[in-house]
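Item description
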Amino acid sequence: MAAPASTKLYSSALLALAADLSRFPFAEDLPLRAEARSRTCGSVITLGLALDEHGLIARTGMRVSACAIGQASAALLAQGVTGTAPGQVRQTASGLSAWLAGEGELPHWPGIEALAPARDHPGRHGALMLPWNAACEALSTGAA
């Protein structure tokens, strides 16, 4: 008997990522900020970033109200973003969007393969993209 779609989508790895999000709380002193809302599911994220003296991302924090897919995607972004150039975040966001549309491979980002099952669930695409869209918006507010 095949496993239900929800079992494949909500793997233990994905749920562990969602739980890891608590390591990245939103802080009021993060200068680059954005809020994003998914039109498809109503998920919301407030994201803040800070850059170091070299223009690389030094800190991140988030306040997330989303399903496990949105939470896991946010945790993956937060886990891998420190020391990253803003252009890499934008490139990964663009690659994720294309991949979800069936136009390319899953982009390179640490642990991102945990999100692969969400591709077959279009209703979760908005939540998956939420942190990446917020990060791109936050970065566009600074001199990144």
Remarks:
- The radius of gyration is 14 Å.
